[in-house]
Protein backbone atom coordinates (compact mmCIF):
# COMPACT_ATOMS: atom_id res chain seq x y z
CA UNK A 1 0.00 0.00 0.00
CA UNK A 2 1.58 3.31 -1.09
CA UNK A 3 1.04 6.20 1.31
CA UNK A 4 1.59 9.62 -0.27
CA UNK A 5 1.09 11.61 2.93
CA UNK A 6 2.92 11.60 6.23
CA UNK A 7 1.78 9.28 9.00
CA UNK A 8 2.94 9.13 12.61
CA UNK A 9 5.92 6.78 12.78
CA UNK A 10 4.35 4.54 15.40
CA UNK A 11 1.43 3.60 13.11
CA UNK A 12 3.21 3.34 9.75
CA UNK A 13 3.34 -0.44 10.16
CA UNK A 14 -0.44 -0.67 10.57
CA UNK A 15 -0.89 0.37 6.93
CA UNK A 16 1.56 -2.18 5.54
CA UNK A 17 -0.07 -4.78 3.31
CA UNK A 18 -0.32 -8.31 4.68
CA UNK A 19 0.42 -7.13 8.19
CA UNK A 20 -0.24 -9.98 10.57
CA UNK A 21 -3.60 -9.25 12.22
CA UNK A 22 -2.70 -11.00 15.46
CA UNK A 23 0.32 -8.75 15.93
CA UNK A 24 -1.85 -5.72 15.31
CA UNK A 25 -4.30 -6.77 18.00
CA UNK A 26 -1.42 -7.40 20.41
CA UNK A 27 -0.18 -3.89 19.72
CA UNK A 28 -3.61 -2.47 20.55
CA UNK A 29 -3.90 -4.57 23.70
CA UNK A 30 -0.46 -3.38 24.78
CA UNK A 31 -1.69 0.21 24.48
CA UNK A 32 -4.89 -0.61 26.37
CA UNK A 33 -6.97 0.20 23.33
CA UNK A 34 -9.95 -0.93 21.33
CA UNK A 35 -9.76 -4.13 19.33
CA UNK A 36 -11.76 -3.65 16.11
CA UNK A 37 -13.74 -6.56 14.68
CA UNK A 38 -11.56 -6.40 11.57
CA UNK A 39 -8.29 -4.73 10.69
CA UNK A 40 -9.85 -2.81 7.78
CA UNK A 41 -11.85 -0.72 10.24
CA UNK A 42 -8.67 0.41 11.96
CA UNK A 43 -6.81 1.03 8.71
CA UNK A 44 -9.68 3.05 7.24
CA UNK A 45 -9.93 5.24 10.34
CA UNK A 46 -6.17 5.85 10.40
CA UNK A 47 -6.15 6.61 6.68
CA UNK A 48 -9.01 9.11 6.89
CA UNK A 49 -7.55 10.96 9.88
CA UNK A 50 -4.09 11.02 8.30
CA UNK A 51 -5.56 12.71 5.23
CA UNK A 52 -7.23 15.36 7.35
CA UNK A 53 -10.74 13.89 7.09
CA UNK A 54 -13.29 13.92 9.90
CA UNK A 55 -14.67 10.51 10.86
CA UNK A 56 -18.10 9.64 12.21
CA UNK A 57 -18.42 6.43 14.24
CA UNK A 58 -21.87 4.87 13.95
CA UNK A 59 -23.01 1.92 16.00
CA UNK A 60 -25.10 0.65 18.91
CA UNK A 61 -24.58 1.85 22.44
CA UNK A 62 -21.76 0.10 24.25
CA UNK A 63 -20.13 -1.12 21.02
CA UNK A 64 -16.88 0.68 21.83
CA UNK A 65 -17.06 3.93 19.84
CA UNK A 66 -15.52 6.07 22.57
CA UNK A 67 -12.86 3.45 23.23
CA UNK A 68 -12.07 3.37 19.51
CA UNK A 69 -11.66 7.16 19.52
CA UNK A 70 -9.32 6.91 22.52
CA UNK A 71 -7.31 4.21 20.74
CA UNK A 72 -6.90 6.41 17.65
CA UNK A 73 -5.81 9.27 19.90
CA UNK A 74 -3.19 6.99 21.48
CA UNK A 75 -1.97 5.67 18.14
CA UNK A 76 -1.49 9.19 16.78
CA UNK A 77 0.02 10.25 20.13
CA UNK A 78 -2.53 13.05 20.16
CA UNK A 79 -4.36 14.39 23.23
CA UNK A 80 -8.12 14.54 22.71
CA UNK A 81 -10.55 17.25 23.82
CA UNK A 82 -14.13 16.01 24.22
CA UNK A 83 -17.61 17.43 23.74
CA UNK A 84 -20.59 15.52 25.16
CA UNK A 85 -23.63 16.63 23.21
CA UNK A 86 -27.08 17.18 24.70
CA UNK A 87 -30.07 19.42 24.10
CA UNK A 88 -28.37 21.94 26.41
CA UNK A 89 -25.24 22.19 24.26
CA UNK A 90 -24.59 25.81 23.29
CA UNK A 91 -21.85 28.01 21.87
CA UNK A 92 -20.16 28.37 25.25
CA UNK A 93 -20.01 24.59 25.71
CA UNK A 94 -18.28 24.27 22.35
CA UNK A 95 -16.12 27.35 22.07
CA UNK A 96 -15.62 28.72 25.60
CA UNK A 97 -16.85 31.60 27.71
CA UNK A 98 -15.91 34.97 29.16
CA UNK A 99 -15.32 35.47 32.86
CA UNK A 100 -14.19 38.23 35.18
CA UNK A 101 -10.72 37.88 36.67
CA UNK A 102 -8.00 40.05 38.16
CA UNK A 103 -4.64 41.04 36.69
CA UNK A 104 -2.35 43.08 38.89
CA UNK A 105 -5.32 44.04 41.08
CA UNK A 106 -7.22 45.23 38.02
CA UNK A 107 -10.47 43.52 37.03
CA UNK A 108 -10.45 42.27 33.45
CA UNK A 109 -12.59 40.09 31.22
CA UNK A 110 -10.83 36.86 30.25
CA UNK A 111 -11.88 34.33 27.63
CA UNK A 112 -11.66 30.69 28.73
CA UNK A 113 -11.40 28.49 25.62
CA UNK A 114 -13.67 25.47 25.24
CA UNK A 115 -12.87 22.08 23.69
CA UNK A 116 -13.22 23.18 20.04
CA UNK A 117 -10.89 26.17 20.40
CA UNK A 118 -8.46 24.17 22.55
CA UNK A 119 -8.22 21.36 19.99
CA UNK A 120 -7.79 23.81 17.11
CA UNK A 121 -5.10 25.96 18.74
CA UNK A 122 -3.08 22.98 19.99
CA UNK A 123 -3.43 20.90 16.81
CA UNK A 124 -4.95 17.88 18.54
CA UNK A 125 -8.07 15.73 18.22
CA UNK A 126 -11.62 16.82 19.00
CA UNK A 127 -14.10 14.10 19.99
CA UNK A 128 -17.81 14.94 19.68
CA UNK A 129 -19.85 12.27 21.44
CA UNK A 130 -23.52 11.60 20.63
CA UNK A 131 -23.40 14.32 17.99
CA UNK A 132 -27.07 13.78 17.09
CA UNK A 133 -28.19 14.73 20.61
CA UNK A 134 -27.38 18.39 19.97
CA UNK A 135 -30.03 20.82 18.79
CA UNK A 136 -29.95 21.21 14.97
CA UNK A 137 -29.15 24.92 15.26
CA UNK A 138 -26.10 24.40 17.49
CA UNK A 139 -23.63 22.34 15.46
CA UNK A 140 -23.70 24.58 12.34
CA UNK A 141 -21.62 26.96 14.49
CA UNK A 142 -18.63 24.75 13.72
CA UNK A 143 -19.33 23.94 10.05
CA UNK A 144 -16.25 25.93 9.06
CA UNK A 145 -14.18 23.89 11.49
CA UNK A 146 -15.33 20.67 9.88
CA UNK A 147 -14.63 21.52 6.24
CA UNK A 148 -11.52 22.43 4.27
CA UNK A 149 -11.34 25.91 5.88
CA UNK A 150 -10.61 24.58 9.37
CA UNK A 151 -11.45 28.03 10.72
CA UNK A 152 -14.01 29.72 12.94
CA UNK A 153 -14.74 33.28 13.95
CA UNK A 154 -14.98 33.16 17.72
CA UNK A 155 -18.23 35.00 18.53
CA UNK A 156 -16.96 35.86 22.01
CA UNK A 157 -13.70 37.54 20.90
CA UNK A 158 -14.25 38.15 17.15
CA UNK A 159 -10.93 36.41 16.59
CA UNK A 160 -10.55 34.22 13.52
CA UNK A 161 -9.15 30.91 14.76
CA UNK A 162 -7.42 28.59 12.29
CA UNK A 163 -6.66 25.03 13.31
CA UNK A 164 -3.03 24.06 13.63
CA UNK A 165 -1.66 21.08 11.73
CA UNK A 166 -2.59 17.82 13.45
CA UNK A 167 -6.13 18.92 14.31
CA UNK A 168 -8.73 16.24 13.56
CA UNK A 169 -12.35 15.53 14.42
CA UNK A 170 -13.85 12.23 15.53
CA UNK A 171 -17.60 12.12 16.21
CA UNK A 172 -19.87 9.34 17.44
CA UNK A 173 -23.56 8.76 16.91
CA UNK A 174 -26.24 6.50 18.38
CA UNK A 175 -29.21 6.36 16.02
CA UNK A 176 -32.85 5.94 16.99
CA UNK A 177 -32.60 6.93 20.65
CA UNK A 178 -34.98 9.27 22.45
CA UNK A 179 -33.72 12.83 22.17
CA UNK A 180 -31.68 12.26 19.01
CA UNK A 181 -32.30 14.05 15.73
CA UNK A 182 -31.19 13.09 12.21
CA UNK A 183 -27.98 14.79 11.12
CA UNK A 184 -28.58 17.34 8.39
CA UNK A 185 -26.91 16.62 5.06
CA UNK A 186 -24.51 19.57 5.31
CA UNK A 187 -23.11 18.17 8.56
CA UNK A 188 -23.12 14.52 7.51
CA UNK A 189 -21.23 15.31 4.29
CA UNK A 190 -18.34 16.65 6.34
CA UNK A 191 -17.57 13.16 7.70
CA UNK A 192 -16.25 9.80 6.56
CA UNK A 193 -18.64 7.28 8.15
CA UNK A 194 -17.45 4.08 9.85
CA UNK A 195 -19.90 1.48 11.13
CA UNK A 196 -18.77 0.10 14.51
CA UNK A 197 -20.31 -3.32 15.20
CA UNK A 198 -20.30 -5.25 18.44
CA UNK A 199 -17.12 -7.16 19.31
CA UNK A 200 -17.69 -10.93 19.42
CA UNK A 201 -15.94 -14.27 19.79
CA UNK A 202 -12.19 -14.40 20.37
CA UNK A 203 -11.86 -10.63 20.19
CA UNK A 204 -14.40 -10.21 22.99
CA UNK A 205 -12.58 -12.87 25.02
CA UNK A 206 -9.32 -10.91 24.65
CA UNK A 207 -11.09 -7.70 25.62
CA UNK A 208 -12.50 -9.28 28.78
CA UNK A 209 -9.02 -10.54 29.69
CA UNK A 210 -7.42 -7.13 29.10
CA UNK A 211 -10.16 -4.84 30.45
CA UNK A 212 -11.67 -6.69 33.44
CA UNK A 213 -10.48 -8.50 36.55
CA UNK A 214 -12.09 -11.76 35.45
CA UNK A 215 -9.49 -14.47 34.79
CA UNK A 216 -11.40 -17.75 34.83
CA UNK A 217 -11.50 -18.95 31.20
CA UNK A 218 -14.60 -21.09 31.68
CA UNK A 219 -16.57 -18.15 33.06
CA UNK A 220 -15.24 -15.84 30.37
CA UNK A 221 -16.42 -18.30 27.70
CA UNK A 222 -19.90 -18.21 29.23
CA UNK A 223 -19.96 -14.42 29.10
CA UNK A 224 -18.84 -14.52 25.46
CA UNK A 225 -21.68 -16.92 24.65
CA UNK A 226 -24.14 -14.74 26.54
CA UNK A 227 -23.02 -11.71 24.55
CA UNK A 228 -23.49 -13.58 21.27
CA UNK A 229 -27.01 -14.62 22.28
CA UNK A 230 -27.88 -11.05 23.29
CA UNK A 231 -26.56 -9.60 20.04
CA UNK A 232 -28.56 -12.14 18.05
CA UNK A 233 -31.71 -11.29 20.03
CA UNK A 234 -31.16 -7.58 19.32
CA UNK A 235 -30.76 -8.27 15.59
CA UNK A 236 -34.04 -10.20 15.66
CA UNK A 237 -35.85 -7.34 17.38
CA UNK A 238 -36.41 -9.26 20.61
CA UNK A 239 -34.29 -6.93 22.74
CA UNK A 240 -33.28 -3.28 22.71
CA UNK A 241 -29.63 -2.45 22.00
CA UNK A 242 -29.00 -1.65 25.66
CA UNK A 243 -29.20 -5.35 26.46
CA UNK A 244 -26.19 -6.16 24.28
CA UNK A 245 -23.96 -3.33 25.46
CA UNK A 246 -20.35 -4.52 25.63
CA UNK A 247 -19.71 -1.92 28.30
CA UNK A 248 -22.42 -3.44 30.49
CA UNK A 249 -21.08 -6.93 29.85
CA UNK A 250 -17.61 -5.89 31.02
CA UNK A 251 -19.16 -4.44 34.18
CA UNK A 252 -20.87 -7.79 34.80
CA UNK A 253 -17.55 -9.59 34.34
CA UNK A 254 -15.92 -7.38 36.97
CA UNK A 255 -18.77 -7.83 39.44
CA UNK A 256 -18.69 -11.60 38.97
CA UNK A 257 -15.27 -11.67 40.64
CA UNK A 258 -17.04 -10.95 43.94
CA UNK A 259 -20.71 -11.83 43.55
CA UNK A 260 -22.32 -14.75 41.64
CA UNK A 261 -22.40 -14.23 37.83
CA UNK A 262 -26.22 -14.34 37.68
CA UNK A 263 -26.49 -11.53 40.19
CA UNK A 264 -23.72 -9.59 38.47
CA UNK A 265 -25.60 -9.81 35.16
CA UNK A 266 -28.82 -8.72 36.86
CA UNK A 267 -27.14 -5.61 38.27
CA UNK A 268 -25.13 -4.68 35.17
CA UNK A 269 -27.55 -5.64 32.38
CA UNK A 270 -31.04 -6.82 33.37
CA UNK A 271 -31.95 -3.99 35.75
CA UNK A 272 -31.10 -1.39 33.09
CA UNK A 273 -33.86 -2.67 30.81
CA UNK A 274 -37.24 -0.92 30.90
CA UNK A 275 -39.59 -3.68 29.77
CA UNK A 276 -40.42 -6.67 31.97
CA UNK A 277 -40.61 -8.82 28.85
CA UNK A 278 -37.00 -8.03 27.98
CA UNK A 279 -35.86 -8.61 31.56
CA UNK A 280 -37.43 -12.07 31.59
CA UNK A 281 -35.92 -12.89 28.19
CA UNK A 282 -32.40 -12.07 29.39
CA UNK A 283 -32.92 -13.92 32.68
CA UNK A 284 -33.93 -17.03 30.75
CA UNK A 285 -30.78 -16.79 28.62
CA UNK A 286 -28.67 -16.43 31.74
CA UNK A 287 -30.34 -19.43 33.39
CA UNK A 288 -29.45 -21.65 30.43
CA UNK A 289 -25.77 -20.64 30.60
CA UNK A 290 -25.04 -20.11 34.28
TrEMBL record:
Pfam families the record matches: AAA_5
Domain of life: Bacteria
InterPro entries reported in the protein's UniProt record: AAA+_ATPase, ATPase_dyneun-rel_AAA, CbbQ/NirQ/NorQ/GpvN, P-loop_NTPase
Any GO MF annotation of the entry: ATP binding
Domain AAA+ ATPase: 51-197
Transmembrane segments: none
SUPFAM superfamilies membership: P-loop containing nucleoside triphosphate hydrolases (SSF52540)
SMART domains according to UniProt: AAA
Protein name per UniProt: AAA+ ATPase domain-containing protein
Organism: Ornithinibacillus bavariensis
